[in-house]
Amino acid sequence: MEQKAALPVDKAYEYIKTRIMDGRFHPSQKLIENDLAQSIGASRNTIKKALLKLEQENLVILEPNKGAKIKAFELQEIKNYLEIREVLEGAILRRTAKTISTSDIKALEDLIEQMKEFAASNNLNGYSQCNQQFHEIIYRASENQEAVALVKQIKTQLQRLQLRTNLVPGRIEQSIQEHQQILAALKANDGSAAQKAVIAHITHLRETIDANYQQLI
C-alpha cells in the first residue's frame, strides 16, 4: 500500500518544531510567516495552523498584532518542570523495575556502551540519541502510560535546553554514571533504588541548568 504524503500543515509543523528542538531557532526569536512559507513552500494559512499547534505544545508564543516567537523558559519555570519530572519518572521507574524484561535490560546495557563510545569521541548528537533511546525503552515498558505522556510533554518543551547541558564540562561523564545506576537498579528489580536513581539523575540535571543557565539559554 502506497504511503500517504504528509499533509502541508504537518510538514510545516515538523519543519518548525525540528528547528526549535535542535536550536536553529533560538528562544525569543521572532518567526516571520512569509519567510517560513517561502522556506517550506507552503501558504501563510498553513504556517498559521502549524504555529497554532506549536503554541498548544508551549513551544511558540502567538502575540496579537506582533506575530509568533519561540518560547523562552525562565529559570524557575524550568526548575518547576524538572521537579514534576522527578515525581513522575520516580513513580514510573519504581513500577517498571518489577516488570522490565531481560531483552529490555540487554538493550539498555548496549545503549550505555554506545553512550560511552560517543562520549569518548565527543559525538554529542550520537550521545543524545542514545540517551533518548535509553529512556524511551523504559517508557515503553511502563504500565503507567498516562504518566509517560506527561513526562514526554515536559521533555519536549525542555529538550533544546537539556541538549545544551552536554556542553557543560563533566556533565556527560556524570550522566553516564547516573544511567549506570538506573540500569543496576532495574537489573536488580529494585523499585525503590530505581526511583532514587532517576530522581538523582533529574536533580543533577536541574542543578546543572541552575548553575549554567545564562550560558545555556
Automatic annotation (TrEMBL):
InterPro entries: GntR_C, TF_FadR/GntR_C, Tscrpt_reg_HTH_GntR, WH-like_DNA-bd_sf, WH_DNA-bd_sf. Keywords: DNA-binding, Transcription, Transcription regulation. The keyword Magnesium does not apply. GO terms for molecular function: DNA binding; DNA-binding transcription factor activity. It comes from the Bacteria. Pfam families: FCD (PF07729), GntR (PF00392). Residues 6-73 form the HTH gntR-type domain. SMART domains: FCD, HTH_GNTR. This is HTH gntR-type domain-containing protein. It comes from Enterococcus casseliflavus EC20. The lineage of its organism: Bacteria, Bacillati, Bacillota, Bacilli, Lactobacillales.
